[in-house]
């Protein structure tokens, strides 16, 4: 089974880990200059670095669909700089997963593949996809909807260690982002993590800097530019999050359901008789 995942940020990477470990072939796409915050656990870094590794899985940049298919034979996750998803019509996958997390549909169609799955708000099952997977932290995280949509975006991050919106660092001005602290740094409230046009971006609480934009990224004021984990576990910076894996589990469930892989054993036996 071949699945194309649109987006290669940390949530999309968690999805890719779940699928690949279930022996499903995965090809990913992202923008040519990725803006993932949690870069240490995002396969989008393969576009920038040529190759990256998250946990036990390696991803490598591919510039053509043919290259991507060749990388699959090496047990590597290919990542194409293809924000429009042009490769979908060429590769004709069994399923498409839109995990761009733009809070709106950026062009995915229910006709893109036999199984099309939207991740998070912005999709409606039965209209522009066959299933939607919930991304909001809480009781319904990872749940699959075969009718309707995910919960609407509140603009407030989910609670981690008792903190929500305070965890997110935002660009203090328009301009070029200048990174000062690295992912994994232990920080205190008030520490300067980066500057934009000379304006400091200060840490909002004590914890570990779990994610930060790369140096030189063009930003606008208020743009998400960093993430602090108040649980102070440095190792969390280098493994997929609970949320990413929960969403990945929901995508795996939807994929198996939509492709008939969960067909009743009795039916399979009857067909093989």
Describe, in short, the structure shown.
The chain is of the alpha/beta class.
Total number of helical segments? Answer: 6
Low-confidence segments = none
The CATH first-level class of the largest domain comes to: Alpha Beta
Count of β-strands: 17
**What CATH architecture label of the largest domain applies?**
3-Layer(aba) Sandwich
Task: Work out the count of structural domains.
Answer: 2
Q: Can you tell me the CATH topology of the largest domain? A: Rossmann fold
**What is the H-and-E element order?**
EHEHEEHEHEEEEEEEEEEEEHH
Secondary structure category: alpha/beta
Core attributes:
Rossmann fold, globular, 20% helix, single chain, alpha/beta, OB fold (Dihydrolipoamide Acetyltransferase, E2P), 17 strands, 273 residues, 2 domains
Q: How would you characterize the overall build of this protein?
A:
By secondary structure, this protein is of the alpha/beta class. It folds into two domains: 2-151 and 241-267, Rossmann fold (3-Layer(aba) Sandwich), CATH 3.40.50; 165-230, Beta Barrel (OB fold (Dihydrolipoamide Acetyltransferase, E2P)). The protein is 20% helix and 26% strand. It contains six helices and 17 strands. The protein has helices at 10-20, 45-49, 65-72, 87-91, 242-259, 265-272, and strands at residues 2-6, 25-30, 51-54, 57-61, 77-81, 95-98, 115-119, 131-133, 144-145, 168-170, 175-179, 186-187, 192-196, 199-202, 207-212, 218-219, 224-229. The strands form three sheets. The protein has a nine-stranded mixed beta sheet, with helices on both faces. A four-stranded antiparallel beta sheet has the order 10-17-15-12, with no helix packed on it. A hairpin with a 2-residue loop joins β13 and β14 (199-202). α1 (10-20) packs across α5. The longest helix is centred in the last third of the chain and has 18 residues, at 242-259.
